Amino acid sequence: xxxxxxxxxxxxxxxxxxxxxxxxxxxxxxxxxxxxxxxxxxxxxxxxxxxxxxxxxxxxxxxxxxxxxxxxxxxxxxxxxxxxxxxxxxxxxxxxxxxxxxxxxxxxxxxxxxxxxxxxxxxxxxxxxxxxxxxxxxxxxxxxxxxxxxxxxxxxxxxxxxxxxxxxxxxxxxxxxxxxxxxxxxxxxxxxxxxxxxxxxxxxxxxxxxxxxxxxxxxxxxxxxxxxxxxxxxxxxxxxxxxxxxxxxxxxxxxxxxxxxxxxxxxxxxxxxxxxxxxxxxxxxxxxxxxxxxxxxxxxxxxxxxxxxxxxxxxxxxxxxxxxxxxxxxxxxxxxxxxxxxxxxxxxxxxxxxxxxxxxxxxxxxxxxxxxxxxxxxxxxxxxxxxxxxxxxxxxxxxxxxxxxxxxxxxxxxxxxxxxxxxxxxxxxxxxxxxxxxxxxxxxxxxxxxxxxxxxxxxxxxxxxxxxxxxxxxxxxxxxxxxxxxxxxxxxxxxxxxxxxxxxxxxxxxxxxxxxxxxxxxxxxxxxxxxxxxxxxxxxxxxxxxxxxxxxxxxxxxxxxxxxxxxxxxxxxxxxxxxxxxxxxxxxxxxxxxxxxxxxxxxxxxxxxxxxxxxxxxxxxxxxxxxxxxxxxxxxxxxxxxxxxxxxxxxxxxxxxxxxxxxxxxxxxxxxxxxxxxxxxxxxxxxxxxxxxxxxxxxxxxxxxxxxxxxxxxxxxxxxxxxxxxxxxxxxxxxxxxxxxxxxxxxxxxxxxxxxxxxxxxxxxxxxxxxxxxxxxxxxxxxxxxxx
Length: 788
Description:
Helix content is 26%, strand content 17%. By secondary structure, it is an alpha/beta fold. Among the domains are: 469-580, Leucine-rich repeat, LRR (right-handed beta-alpha superhelix) (Alpha-Beta Horseshoe), CATH 3.80.10.10; 584-617; 641-787, 3-Layer(aba) Sandwich (Rossmann fold). Keywords: Disulfide bond, Glycoprotein, Immunity, Inflammatory response, Innate immunity, Leucine-rich repeat, Membrane, Receptor, Repeat, Signal, Transmembrane, Transmembrane helix.
């Protein structure tokens, strides 16, 4: 039983490890406590940190959420269960999620919605229930507890019946999306909120054609002057399909947009007639397929004095080149203040049409087919056309002449903003004319290689990003914002050219570095974005960027994207993380200091060696070691050639050679003396001669005088003799004091002499001749060889 218990514990431990491995493999939690578990084939809610703030479980295979699955995660603010296989959610599954703000349950298999799910979600602001197969909504109040809800998305193609469900109690709802393409029953007031909703998106598809009465009920509940009404995924082909918009007109709808829809010129004419007399001020067409040839005559008598904005994007006109002129829409164009026709294959606005745009203030014709040939009639200003135009966007067309555009823009007397980006100008003329009112000019991605005085000096904002520019020399006295991102600038432009510049963007160029002097030239610069450049991480730049740059400007982009390009060892490192040594930063001064220290140390060593005679001691030690390594047989008595080796100063040579040597060598028996002048082997190193002579001598006779203690070679001989006395434990040294010497006058390096004089009796050369016979007798006795 004990064994089984231990085995069970091991199995549980392995399961825990496997579960931890599964967590680490399926979920990625970042530093913001957001855990991404998307697309991992999960069949249940995985284990994540209890303090997780966000949990993405989308695109998995989770079929149910039990009461305890989410209970540990009471800090969650975002929960995404989009595109799973959810069939069951326990009524208390979200009971601990008091802080949850975003909940996505879209595209699952929930056949019934329960108000109990939302009872504790007091902080919920966004709820998505779209795409679940529930068939009925209500009559139980499902959403009444979500008092802070701001965005609600619900409905599905399977939805058949809608009843009042608690929307009338939501006082903060700003956006609602409803999908009911197959709706059969709708209770009046079901989609009516407590106050007007800012945006309502309806996807009712064929109901406009098949059940217009039901659509009218829906529009009656959601239409309001403060509501932007978006109709999605519909096909308006006949007059009948537009009848429900009477409810929108009666509800005071001012903003109406169609998205991802198909319509005909006949249906659009009918719509204009149905909405005639309304307060409609905004009309939008996005991703709309239009069939017809542009016959709008029947609507020419309608009144749309309040219509001031038309937004058209991705309009596909079937048989575009057979489409009629816009002249028949003159009754609308004359009232418009803002027009956007984006990606609509527009290649020209006929000259006859432009006078109808006399009230136009904003015109966006981006992503079209305008060229140098067609832009001139398009911007024809005759008969008061474009007299109020202040914003013009013709980006992403096929215009190639900047000079032509400047000439046409000059005629737009109210123009303040001009976007010419993503055209192919390549070059820029030397001189251009521009309207004096122009303040904002966008020339990004126009393949410019060189700037000329063509640009207007009246600008306050200039965008030259994504070109091939390297030099900027023109002065802009009013410029406050300059965008040079994506060019080839190797240094910041001269700040004196921009006396009022506040914001400079120069990312993704070839900047090597910048410093305080560069930034001081910009008298008013406040914000700089210069990341993703080829920075040379010199000591000067690294120090400036880490410690001083914030004293000059505010770095607005991510400082981690300021990385080193050189030196190679630092490539890819963030400038903020670079730490350079003193030698890297101050190479020449550091080398000078190091060399100075080396010289000083060497000088100290030399002085020390001189003062304490260290070199001499080293030479001595080396010579003695070499002598010690020689065979000791030479020291046997029968091998000794001399009775004494005479060590004396050259200044005492006369006494030695004329008095000492004759007296001893003529004695009976005579003494064999070794003199360096006479007996040293020529060509041999003098130290070897000294060592060899001392070793082959029975005694060493030192002739001491003031000259002796000042001689280096005498010191060698004295030291080697002292080594011999110590090493062989004999009395081989004989001292003859030729003249009185005070011990305190003997230099410190002659410490051996002091020791010998203190430990041995020495003979003094007498001045009195009568005593000299006694001196010679004692000396001969001291030199006498011992009997074997």
